[in-house]
Amino acid sequence: MVVFSHEYAIVDGTGSEPLAQLSGGFATFGTLGVDIFFVVSGLLVTRSLLERKVIGFFVVSRVLRILPALAVVLALSAWVIGPTLTDLPLREYFARRDAWSYVARNLTLADFQWGLPGVFTHNPVRDAVNGSLWTLQPEVQMYGLLLLLGVIAAAGGTWLSRRRAILVGVGMVAAITWGWARHGDLAGQALEPSSLARLAPYFGLGALLYLARRIVPSTVLLPAAVWIIAIVSRGTALFAPAFAVAVALSTVWLAYARIGSLKRWGRYGDFSYGLYIYAFPVQQTLVALFPAWGRSEHFAAAYAATLLCAVLSWRFIEAPALSLKKRFRQWERHSGSVRTAQEP
C-alpha cells in the first residue's frame, strides 16, 4: 500500500492517488498502510513487553529488530546508490560532509538527513533518498513509552509489577487521549498529519486490543459497525477517532482470521520491514534510471526489486540479527530466577 501510494508522488510528482480522492483528501493508501503498521506494532510490541521478565531483553529485542537492517540500507544508499547516481564527480561527492553523515544521522532516528549530494536532483521528488524513514521516529517514541511504563512497574515492587498490564493499559489510554487532543483535524477535512499525535492512537489501540484480547469478540460485525459510525460522523470531531478504531479492529480481525492462503502468508519470513525501508530508494533509483517509464511499469519493477531486497534483508540481516536474542534468553531466565529468589 505504501509503495503504491508513493508512486503518485515519486513518478508523477502529485499526491492525487485513488484513496485520497475517495476519502476527500483525508487518507491515502500510504497513510492507511502506516496506520495499520502502528496497530500491528502496538499489539506485538506490547505482547513482547509483558512476556519479558527483564526490561533489558525488551530493549535488546527492539534494537535488533530496527537498527541492523536500517544500517545496511543507509550504507547502501550513501555509498552505493549515491556514488552511482550523483551529478557530482566522485571526488567531490566523497569530499562532502553529508555523504558521510547520512548513515550516522539517520541511525539516531532523531535528526534525519533526507538528501545526499547531487543525488536525485532531477526526480519529481528532489533530494529525498528515503522519505519513508520519518515513521521510525514515532515508532521508537512509542517503544520508549512502553519501556518507561515497564520500568515504573519494575521499580514499583511486586504489587505493581504483577499489575504491569493495567499500568500499560492506563498509559496507552493516556497516549491515545493525548494524540487525539493534539491531532488538529479530528473532523477529517485534510490529509492526516505526519506526526506522533496521529500515530500514537493507532499504536495505543493495538496495545489495548492485545490487553483486551479475551473480551473483544472476534467477529467482522464489530469493525463493520464502527466503520458505519465513522462514515456517518464525517465532518465532526468523532470522525478521526472512529476511523482509527475501525482501522484497528479491522486490522486485528483480519490478522487472526483463518482465511485460505493467509494462514500460510508468513511461512517464508517477515519481509514487511525490508519492504518498507527499501521501497523509497528503489523507487527513486528507477525514476532516475528510467524517467520515461509510466506508473504501471514503474510500480511493477519497483515492487519486484523492493521485494527482492526485502527477502535478502530478512535472510542475511534481519533473521540473523534476531537470532542473537537467543544469547540473551539465558540472561533473562537467570535474572528472572534471581529476582524470584530474592522476593519475599
Q: Could you outline the blueprint of secondary structure elements for this entry?
A:
Layout: H1 2-10, H2 18-22, H3 29-51, H4 55-85, H5 90-95, H6 98-107, H7 136-155, H8 157-162, H9 164-182, H10 196-211, H11 221-232, H12 239-256, H13 272-289, H14 295-323, H15 325-342
Helix pairs in contact: 1-3, 1-13, 1-14, 3-7, 3-10, 3-12, 4-6, 4-7, 4-13, 4-14, 4-15, 7-9, 7-10, 9-10, 10-12, 11-12, 13-14
- Termini separation (Å)? 52 Å
Residue fraction in strands? under 5%
Mean pLDDT: 92
Class by alpha and beta content: mainly alpha
> Which value, in Å, is the CA radius of gyration?
22 Å
**pLDDT < 50 stretches:** 337-344
Total separate domains: 1
Shape: globular
SSE succession: HHHHHHHHHHHHHHH
How many DSSP H or I helices? Answer: 15
> What is the tally of beta strands?
0
Helix content: 55-70%
Major sheet characteristics = none
What does this 3D model show about the protein?
By secondary structure, the chain is mostly helical. It has one domain (2-329). The protein is built from 15 helices and no strands. Helix 4 (55-85) packs antiparallel against helix 7 (136-155). Mean pLDDT is 92; it is low at 337-344.
Concise description?
The protein has 344 residues and is an all-alpha fold.
Task: Fill in the keyword field for this structure.
344 residues; mainly alpha; globular; disordered C terminus
